[in-house]
Amino acid sequence: MKKGFIFDLDGVIVDTAKYHFLAWQNLANSLGISFSEEQNEQLKGVSRIRSLEKILEWGNKTISEEEFTRLMSEKNEEYLVYISKMDASEILPDVPRVLDYLMSKEQAIALGSASKNARVILDKVDLTAKFQAIVDGTNVSKAKPDPEVFLIGAKELGISPENCVVFEDSVAGVQAANIANMISIGIGDAKVLHEADYVFNDFTEIKEEFINNLVAA
Ligand code: B16
Ligand code: MG
């Protein structure tokens, strides 16, 4: 049976959290706010606007709307410099193997990411051609855990939500997949992602037999 497989980007296909961290840390420090790796963890899967709001809340700072807009674009410019140096070596282990296996089984594949930079990143790591549909921060109005991003992905693939499987590294993303009535597969820490139907540390643990069972279900 043809199923829809929807991949989150940051933290699932590539580890861009380290670049978000560098850019957010510079921004926070310029405002006199400290910013730790633990705080960066809490921004995974969170939109750019909400991320800056959270940093300002942590630093107990209020700024004008103009400054907010300026800081967001400065952060993104710095992030884009890091992204511009990415290549296929930054794809997380065994992601290409799983994508190629799904393609060999004629399954439908989509991207479902909160990032407005998703297309640039997919191009840099040379994976764009693997996706039949790309839904990202430029297509959605509601952030995860709202299921909008995955529901649009299913629609673009022409597969009903209950026949879709989502790979996600963030709690909000797993919740979004569950709300969408899709199978949720957490990539990361099982304790953090306990709401997912299945959790794997990374794609090296996802065997062909497991994929075959998802396809046949
Ligand atoms: P951008 P995902 C998310 O991507 C990131 O996890 C999150 O840290 C970031 O703030 C968000 O994209 C927006 O990214 O600033 O590039 O639009 O995990 O949903 O693929
Ligand atoms: Mg993610």
From TrEMBL:
UniProt-annotated site: Important for catalytic activity and assists the phosphoryl transfer reaction to Asp8 by balancing charge and orienting the reacting groups, residues: 113, 144
GO biological process: carbohydrate metabolic process
Positions annotated as active site in the UniProt record: 8, 10
CDD domains associated with the record: HAD_BPGM
Domain of life: Bacteria
Amino-acid positions noted as binding Mg(2+) in the UniProt annotation, renumbered to this chain: 8, 10, 168-169
Root EC class: isomerase
InterPro entries assigned to the protein according to its UniProt record, in alphabetical order: B-phosphoglucomutase_hydrolase, Beta-PGM, HAD-like_sf, HAD-like_SPP, HAD-SF_hydro_IA, HAD_sf, PGP-like_dom2
Residues that hold substrate according to the record: 8-10, 24, 43-48, 51, 75, 113-117, 144
Cofactor: binding details: Binds 2 magnesium ions per subunit.
Matches recorded under Gene3D superfamilies: HAD superfamily/HAD-like, Putative phosphatase, domain 2
Protein EC: 5.4.2.6
Cofactor(s) recorded in Swiss-Prot or TrEMBL: Mg(2+)
GO function terms (MF aspect): beta-phosphoglucomutase activity; magnesium ion binding; sugar-phosphatase activity
Keywords (A to Z) from UniProt: Isomerase, Magnesium, Metal-binding
Family: Belongs to the HAD-like hydrolase superfamily. CbbY/CbbZ/Gph/YieH family.
PANTHER family referenced in this protein's UniProt entry, alphabetically: FRUCTOSE-1-PHOSPHATE PHOSPHATASE, GLYCEROL-1-PHOSPHATE PHOSPHOHYDROLASE 1-RELATED
Protein name (Swiss-Prot/TrEMBL): Beta-phosphoglucomutase
Naturally occurring in which organism (per UniProt): Aquimarina mytili
Gene: pgmB
